[in-house]
Sequence to fold (279 residues):
Amino acid sequence: MTNWLITGCSTGLGRSLAEAVLKAGHNAVVTARSTAAVQDIVAAFPDTALAAALDVTDKEQVRNSVALAQDRFGSIDVLVNNAGYGYRAAVEEGDDQEVDALFATNFFGTVSMIKAALPAMRARRSGTILNVSSIAGRLAAPGSGYYSASKFAMEGMSDALRKEVAPLGIRVTIVEPGAFRTDFAGRSLQQTGTKIDDYANTAGPRRKENDKTHGTQPGDPNRAATALIDLVSRSELPARLLLGSDAVNVVGTEVDNQRREIDAWRGLSVSSDFLPDDR
Fold:
């Protein structure tokens, strides 16, 4: 039995993961901005589930949720930073306050959770942190520049964190889902109110009113939850785990394209090296 703390459990992958963790016999702190959204989960598992109000942008709630987990279950063995949302805007269209709020949740909220949980993990020399990113943390589509930037930031931080805490017995994996049948592309997706006509053919097709993918995504959040429980049980974890066949295909193609571009421009790239014979 392991003790989990999962952020963003009201809907989507977070809810599916919370239910799967509890059904598997583990303990879980199930969080949402309003505990009413997860009360049904806790009611079904009264001995092993605890609801906690958590807005990851509220540092007091962050500290309280970690303290509740430690008081109730003794430790946090697995921290899952899942809370986050999407935002659509061409870069020029992005609203400064909306972008600040996006980063406050998707990036700085994750950082706050990690910093709150790490002291006890370091003391025990054990723990697992799963940071839920996206394939948008590997490549950016038109209209998703700010969302991708928040996930690129998470991934850069997570890469460094993994190397910092590995000698302390703590594991860190970045989870990169493709498109899943959740509310992510529906109710949870936000977008700018500014529309610049020159971006109608690039960012425009990805506006909520034009995007027809919601409800047709290939990913099953329940199967993703099962995969994450399996992942945590393994003795060795990858730095990154793609979730979904679309994720494997899209990111695989991106990596191949990056390799080809590096090779194509290698001559110019290496021409900038200092040569001892230069005068």
Q: What stands out?
A: The mean pLDDT is 94.
